[in-house]
Input
Amino acid sequence: MGVEVQGVCPDRYARVRDAFVANFDNDLEHGARFALAVEGEIVIDLWAGFADRKKTLPFTDRTLTPVFSTTKAVTSLIVARAVGQGRIDYAQPVADLWPEFAQAGKGAITVEQCMSHQDGLAAFIEPMEPSLWFDWDAVCARLAAMAPLWEPGTASGYHPVTFGYTAGEIFRRATGRTIGKALREDLAEPFGLDLWIGLPDSEHGRVAEIVKPPAMANLGEMTPLKKAAFMAAWSSPGGRGTADWRRMELPSANGHATAPALARMMGALANDGRLDGKEVLSSGTAAEASRQRIAGRDLVLPFDLSWGAGLLRNQGLDIYGPGADSFGHSGWGGSCAFADPERRISGAYVMNRQSPHLIGDPRPVGLIDAVYSAL
Output
């Protein structure tokens, strides 16, 4: 018996439903959801499978999924809002907002260099207690005192975890709020988005259990930088329980969301800042956020990448459809969210069975390609 798929999918997008079912039939999924928005309105919303490892709880329209680094797309939009409001300038030195950041020769590093993984702060080389990540001020102080691991502005080196602290502290210094608080107050609550950075205890029971990938990701030739960013015992938060992980606000890695919430949020970036007829970003801000800041071989991920201000550009990757100007972000295990301003569409894929693909997981790529085949 095939998987029982719930949700909506118009006949013109039948290939999307077929691709979604095929992922389950080929034993690639445990529980998953895919959503597509056209001009900010959801037209496809499919879900199926199980929310728990033992397959006793169905994956439903209420299931929340950890999306890991797909969270960076949300953070990038929140920072872009502050840019559009004149509170942050992408070109300004970070030290203008965060004076302590100027230590160790970092006085000239700009906001957009931090947002595009160019600042040389991708990881901590020196050992530390993994539980330190739960102390926001301590981590930010460590980053402020740290010398860059390469010459800022010469290359990108993906920041799996530290991105959330630099972007979050820049935003907090400029606005007086955290990324998670701004998300709740400005977007999630007003627009009914089931999207969280910092999950309250009342929502923990809805979170899907993660099924870990069968193998480690292929990082290419291992370097000390890659080891510190991904493999070291202190490379990510640890030493505390799952509940503490969900509660903390980590704007790089611990977002929880449904696929429609992410797809609608990305709709603001696909439609020049407008969502449900209201201005979320001032006109032109989405284009400025997604404008290329650096391109080339990344020092941490084994890919040639093109970065906007926190947004991964589709140029050369073709993981968010065929358009070079599409952009988004992907998360550990396979989740992703994307926007295509040319066609005014946006989408998101979430799941709880992780794969070892760093970016370009074949499951969402197949779904997105099926969307474009129908356009």
Observations:
- The first strand starts at residue 6 and ends at 8.
- The chain is about 30% helix and 15% strand.
- The chain has one domain: 9-44+64-374.
